[in-house]
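[worker-b] picked up task from shared queue
[worker-b] task type: protein-ligand structure
[worker-b] ligand name resolved to zinc ion; SMILES cross-checked against name lookup, match
[worker-b] sequence length check passed
[worker-b] input payload:
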Amino acid sequence: MITGVKLVVQVKLAPDAVQAPALESTLHAANEAACWVSAVSFDRFGLKGSVRELRKLCYGELKARGFGAQAAQHVIKRVADAYTTLRANIKAGNLGPEDSTRRHKAESKPIMFRPDAAHTYDDRCLSWNYDAKTVSIWTLQGRIKNVRFVCSAGTLKQLTGQRQGESDLIQRDGKLFLVATIDIAEPEAFEPKGFIGVDRGITNLATTSDGDNHSGRRLGRYRRWQASKKAELQAKQTHSAKQLLKKRARREARHATHINHKISKTVVAVAQRTERGIALEELRGIRERVTVPRDQRARQSSWPFHQLGAFIAYKAKRAGVPFIEVDPAYTSQRCPRCGHTERANRRTRDHFHCRRCGLAGPADHVAGANIAKRGATAWVFVNMPDPLPA
Ligand SMILES: [Zn+2]
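[worker-b] inference finished, payload out:
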């Protein structure tokens, strides 16, 4: 069986002096329209507007503003989706308890859309010419052809033949990009000869059950440097300082993404070479497990652990490497040799020492071993044929 894995790639647009303002003003108008639809939705339905109802209320006005049928539909859908996501986040407690300021703020006003936020194009509004490296794209000034785009040879190869469905037009730092979805067919997962357990942590961003370490030490220095620069900028309250701060935050996020790509690539390559699967903790484990000194808390919460997990998952899938998520409970306190589980097995953050059998070693490595073990056990259950009816 071949199943698809979805990847997102982006290309930079290189519009000429006539095309650029048309694209830019269309994007801004689409987001202005989204703000308007959002306000209508909020007034009438609170957080519960649906595509069907918003279509009834807003479609006419969007058409009058010059949006085509598809573009109008995309604006409406995006607003409805944004409220669905907000509701899900509230329900999951991501905005804090009912009486939190953050939650109250989110519930008390319509969702806003930045002028440079994404606008969705489907194949009727956007067509790609991969050979010429151009697109033809709908704007409020009509359809414009031969808009050049720039991307790597690898990305172009992926786009050709594998791009599917909708793409987003976005603007960042004044530049326009198209974000496209690639659908990759990947091989069926092989039958693993064991599992590699990956422990995600703060100092060691990832430690495998083989004892391979992907340390965050250099990253720590980088983040501290960034933090001090940030404090400097925050002290100045000028517009340009704020812009610089935003730019820096984006750069920091890009850097984290880069590191996560590197780590996930290495882990998946080792798994593939040794014909093993990869086991990862379900995410809730990371925050509960360790008590972190205050100065490290920022680092902990700002590191995108979730992204690392997502990267490992899709790279594994693409390579046919079995991937499984396991229960994170006690992976740092359990002895992988005798099974004895006690908090005192891990007196300090870095060292594990079993109180019963004496097994000792680096704590992250031990956690990785426990995760690997759990992965192997879980894999058997996941792949067990359904029991016959009694
Ligand atoms: Zn033990």
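[worker-b] attaching auto-annotations
[worker-b] The two ends are 30 Å apart (CA to CA).
[worker-b] releasing lock
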